């Protein structure tokens, strides 16, 4: 029999339906794996074991009554950016203190409605700002993969959803929620050899998700297969009147789209994504991916997205501007940390609380955002960035145009490199920002983007390909992603995972 | 455009983040590094381009101007670091 932690989400649902395993056994197997491996990986910041077992037993009872939901009994990790009623939520920051939300985010409420069992809250970069999961107040997450010739160097899982990615890769959850503002689902998915989907802006409600940059933030799933991401996304999605930007659109059966043929589809290959100094193996994997799609009957088409090269600097004005506004709410008064001096005034309370509560990267971004929004600089920076953002979106509109479309989807590398060491790229903020060079355009344009594990680099580390699609056409994205997945037949396993006799830890 | 020490101090004050002189100096260097890098946007012609503010294509909905939620003072105050009855507690603001 399959080890319970080795099930795909689809496989677990089948086994649960066939009564080959109970939700309680499934949850317990994952909790045991977390207990064994989390001290090393630090993928979970909180494990809600008792609650999980209680919910799993309730799930078994529902199934026995014939009331099984679409995710009945599936154990998931929840990024600690989603507010969970009665369970401490930190956003990876000290400033939230012991904040315990009195409400449940819409996305997690949807998952619970469909029968999911939450194992705990997963680690992340502070306020989802980062590409390495090294900025968390709860400490860094370790990537479960190691370099073949250098197994002792601890690697980053990517970020910001590094805890979710590491947990799914190491079999500490069947799937996980994540969020993506500039690449925070797709980049860690690629670094950890799993699939991750950032849906169209507006597809998943942002209500109850700790805000970073509201015009860019989107929730999405991570799982070990494209189809599992599709199954999770269907449950996570849906119109929510509590989020003013939530799209009132029907939610299709995304999993069904994974079986669609890609024959006749036109796949765009943007020439601007061919970067100077990009490793040859990334370029080779990209070409291999395009060849796989041609073999499956798709046509590949060279396209140009002339403003794509301005996406990262645009993002690093827009996102900090929105963050500086969103994070103004952490004032030491209503919730979270408070630091005050005797006889200090209110301004002093604000300044001391925020100095103690925010980490270095969050402070940098609040400072940049405050500056670009301040009188005298607003037009030169913020307004300029908003205009360039419009041009970036226009480039996509032109290749995806409803009439006379050049392409149906775009395929690119997911990241410019494989996972790097925990000590690398920490001294230069701009070098760290370059991780998101391929992913950030989809956020600026509000488009869906999927990262699919497609191969290994020469060091044995996973590399991903990205599929970008039209707004609200996740189905084509899933179809192309599933075709890449079938052709790639990615079966490599991380060094650290449940059930594997681990090399001496440390 | 490059930030000087006075501007960095003013921005920190606007952002309500207390910074010691050493941190201000480090921040000045880091911010100038980032701003130097985003400077490349100035080369993009954007005359007549409508700025893009939101993430979605659709215009925002309006809802009826009616109370949809509320009356939850205890839940709202449950995480407050300091409270006085049904109010948040803060240092004295008015003399």
UniProtKB/TrEMBL annotation, chain A:
Residues 25-477 form the Amidase domain. Its EC number is 6.3.5.7. The active site is at 79 (charge relay system), 160 (charge relay system), 184 (acyl-ester intermediate). It catalyses: L-glutamyl-tRNA(Gln) + L-glutamine + ATP + H2O = L-glutaminyl-tRNA(Gln) + L-glutamate + ADP + phosphate + H(+). Signal peptide: none annotated. InterPro entries: Amidase, Amidase_CS, Amidase_dom, AS_sf, GatA. GO terms for biological process: translation. The keyword Ribosomal protein does not apply. Allows the formation of correctly charged Gln-tRNA(Gln) through the transamidation of misacylated Glu-tRNA(Gln) in organisms which lack glutaminyl-tRNA synthetase. The reaction takes place in the presence of glutamine and ATP through an activated gamma-phospho-Glu-tRNA(Gln). NCBIfam families: gatA. Heterotrimer of A, B and C subunits. PANTHER family: GLUTAMYL-TRNA(GLN) AMIDOTRANSFERASE SUBUNIT A (PTHR11895:SF151), TRANSAMIDASE (PTHR11895). This is Glutamyl-tRNA(Gln) amidotransferase subunit A.
């Amino acid at each position: 029999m399959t080890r319970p932690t080795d099930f795909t989400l689809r496989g677990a649902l089948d086994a649960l339906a066939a009564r080959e395993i109970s939700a309680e056994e499934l949850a317990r197997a994952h909790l045991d794996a977390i207990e064994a491996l989390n001290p090393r990986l630090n993928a979970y910041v909180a494990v809600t074991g008792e609650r999980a077992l209680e919910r799993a037993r309730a799930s078994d009872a529902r199934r026995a009554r014939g009331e099984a939901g679409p995710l009945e009994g599936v154990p998931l990790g929840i990024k600690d950016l989603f507010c969970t009623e009665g369970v401490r939520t930190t956003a990876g920051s000290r400033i939230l203190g012991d904040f315990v939300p009195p409400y449940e985010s819409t996305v997690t409420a949807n998952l619970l409605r469909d029968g999911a069992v939450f194992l705990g809250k997963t680690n992340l970069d502070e306020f989802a700002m980062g590409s390495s999961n090294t900025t968390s107040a709860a400490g860094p997450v370790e990537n479960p993969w190691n370099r073949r010739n250098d197994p002792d160097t601890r690697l980053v899982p990517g970020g910001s959803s590094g805890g979710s990615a590491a947990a799914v890769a190491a079999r500490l959850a069947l799937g996980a929620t994540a969020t993506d503002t500039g690449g925070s689902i797709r980049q860690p998915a690629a670094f950890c050899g799993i699939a991750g989907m950032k849906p169209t802006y507006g597809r998943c409600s942002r209500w109850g998700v700790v805000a970073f940059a509201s015009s860019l933030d989107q929730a999405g799933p991570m799982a070990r297969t494209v189809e599992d991401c599709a199954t999770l996304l269907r449950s996570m999605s849906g119109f929510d009147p509590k989020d003013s930007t939530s799209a009132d659109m029907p939610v299709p059966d995304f999993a069904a789209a994974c079986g669609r043929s890609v024959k006749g589809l036109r796949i765009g290959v943007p020439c601007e994504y061919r970067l100077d100094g990009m490793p040859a193996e990334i370029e080779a994997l990209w070409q291999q991916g395009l060849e796989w799609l041609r073999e499956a009957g798709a046509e590949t088409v060279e396209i140009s997205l002339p403003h794509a090269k301005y996406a990262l600097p645009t993002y690093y004005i827009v996102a900090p501007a929105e963050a500086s506004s969103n994070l103004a709410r952490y004032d030491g008064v209503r919730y979270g940390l408070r630091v005050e001096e005797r006889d200090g005034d209110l301004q002093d309370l604000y300044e001391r609380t925020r100095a103690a509560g925010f980490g270095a990267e969050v402070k940098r971004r609040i400072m940049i955002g405050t500056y670009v929004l301040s009188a005298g600089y607003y037009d030169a920076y913020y307004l300029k960035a908003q205009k360039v953002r419009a041009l970036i979106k226009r480039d996509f509109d032109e290749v995806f145009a409803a009439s006379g479309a050049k392409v149906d989807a775009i395929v690119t590398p997911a990241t410019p490199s494989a996972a790097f060491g925990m000590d690398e790229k920490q001294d230069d903020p701009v070098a760290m920002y370059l991780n998101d060079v391929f992913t950030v355009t989809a956020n600026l344009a509000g488009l869906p983007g999927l990262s699919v594990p497609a191969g290994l680099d020469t060091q044995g580390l996973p590399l991903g390909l990205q599929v970008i699609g039209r707004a609200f056409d996740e189905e084509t994205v899933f179809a192309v992603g599933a075709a890449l997945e079938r052709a790639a037949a990615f079966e490599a396993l991380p060094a650290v995972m449940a059930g594997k006799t681990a090399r001496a830890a440390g | 455009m490059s930030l000087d020490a006075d501007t960095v101090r003013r921005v920190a004050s606007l952002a309500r983040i207390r910074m010691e002189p050493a941190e201000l100096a480090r921040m000045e260097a880091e911010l100038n590094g980032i701003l130097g890098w985003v400077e490349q946007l100035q080369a993009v012609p954007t005359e007549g381009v409508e700025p893009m503010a939101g993430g979605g294509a659709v215009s925002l909905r309006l809802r009826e101007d009616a109370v949809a939620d509320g009356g939850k003072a205890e839940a709202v105050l449950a995480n407050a670091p300091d409270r006085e009855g049904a109010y948040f507690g803060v240092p004295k603001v008015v003399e």
